[in-house]
Specification:
Residues 1-69 form the Ubiquitin-like domain. With 410 residues, this protein is of the alpha+beta class. Helices cover 39% and strands 21% of the residues.
């Protein structure tokens, strides 16, 4: 296509150019025709300045259009291009124009630092100033690290403090490399993991059930049990305290109630906790009883070995009141094994009936029989305290193997 350029001396020059030609190449053609250097040219179309990296077609220049050439504004003074102590420009407008006029520098910025290049090409000077400050801070931090590394390199090899710093620097370097490798190969590790919830009905009332295979028992809060019409069935002989990272009061037990998962009904037992941050937790006892499968590939919970499946809820479907899963699961989870040795604590459940805690004698007939006493003696011979053995056997309804596993694990 052909365009006409009106020059500074009121001449008209016709150029045969490609629609996708860059403004910089048009200026190069005009430099040959007018002897005005490329850096001294400023082209305008429809009253707007044409930048060197722009394409004619993107500016709307068509065959037969006219472009105005004016002298480039005088170069900014050296004081206008100086930077403040925080890295920002004293005259951000002049600084921006100076970088824009250098096509080679702009090309490098677009390739190496596109965010800064876009700030230079944009109209938000505050954003440009903030980026300049950020780049200045990064340069200072890099220089500080380099100076520290250099100082350590020439440090006295017999200086204990210097050797500690060298060791810390080597360790930090390994951590940084590990972090970079994780960013590249395992970026999902830095994302928030949504806990597993499914829709259930407890005694006909819809609830959002937290699926937790690390919790020993299935737990329902007092408020949820009341809403589901189950609080009247609370057996307060099973009062106690659930102790873990946090502590919650066990109000008792509801021995059986129907839950609906998908289109099927299942019997379920609940431990009732006074835990305001937790509504309903479906624990390992019921997961085992109903042969559940946590299928993370298909993102479903399968019941009865797969005969019924329900999808896990997405984050948007989980009410905000129960988003703090980690805190309440740590407070409410029962029998998860040990916490770090420094705490000197073990997570455990103290949900024996009140008379058991007072006298050390199980309340039911099975616990009082000779068979139960024989199991106690057998486990005591393994080195466990009699009181701990009674609690474990009571907890597992006299199952000797499960009680032994609990005692060895606790």
């Amino acid at each position: 296509m052909k365009i006409t350029v009106m020059t500074t001396d009121d001449r008209f020059i016709t150029l045969d150019v490609d629609p996708d030609e860059s403004v910089e190449n048009v200026k190069a053609l005009l430099e040959v025709e007018t002897s005005v250097s490329l850096s001294q040219q400023q082209l305008h179309f429809n009253g707007k300045e044409m930048r060197n990296l722009d394409r004619l077609s993107s500016l709307g220049v068509k065959d037969g259009d006219m472009v105005m050439m004016t002298p480039q504004a005088s170069q900014a003074s050296s004081s206008d291009l100086r930077l403040n102590s925080d890295g920002s420009a004293m005259n951000p407008g002049a600084f921006q124009q100076q970088i824009r006029s250098d096509s080679q520098l702009m090309a490098q910025l677009l390739q190496n630092d596109p965010a800064f290049a876009q700030a230079v090409l944009g109209d938000d000077l505050d954003h440009l100033q903030n980026l300049l400050r950020e780049r200045h801070r990064q340069r200072l931090e890099l220089r500080r690290k380099q100076e520290e590394e250099l100082a350590l390199m020439y440090a006295d090899p017999f200086d204990v403090e210097a050797q500690k710093k060298i060791e810390a620097a080597i360790r930090q370097k390994g951590i940084d490399e590990n972090w970079e490798a994780a960013l590249e190969h395992n970026p999902e590790a830095f994302a928030r993991v949504v806990m597993l919830y499914v829709d259930m009905e407890v005694n006909g009332v819809p609830v959002k059930a937290f699926i937790d295979s690390g919790a020993q028992a299935t737990i329902i809060s007092k408020s949820c049990a009341e809403r589901c019409g189950l609080l009247r069935l609370l057996d307060d002989r099973y009062r106690g305290v659930a102790v873990g990272v946090g502590q919650s009061e066990i109000l008792g037990r509801i021995h059986v109630a129907p839950i609906k998962i998908g289109h099927s009904f299942y019997p379920c037992s609940f431990t009732v906790l006074d835990a305001p941050n937790m509504e309903f937790l479906f624990g390992l006892d019921m997961l085992r009883k109903h042969q559940c499968i946590i299928d993370l590939k298909e993102n479903v919970l399968r019941m009865g070995g797969g005969e019924v499946s329900v999808p896990f809820l997405s984050e948007k479907d989980i009410p905000s009141l129960i988003h703090d899963e980690e805190r309440f699961s740590k407070q409410a989870s029962l029998g998860r094994g040990s916490v770090p040795e420094t705490s000197g604590a073990r997570e455990r459940i103290a949900d024996m009936p009140a008379q058991t805690q007072a006298s050390g004698t199980p309340p039911n007939d099975r616990a009082q029989g000779a068979d139960f006493e024989a199991k106690i003696l057998k486990l005591v011979e393994l080195g466990f305290e009699r009181e701990a053995v009674i609690r474990a056997l009571t907890l597992f309804n006299g199952n000797e193997e499960q009680a032994a596993g609990y005692l060895f694990g606790g």
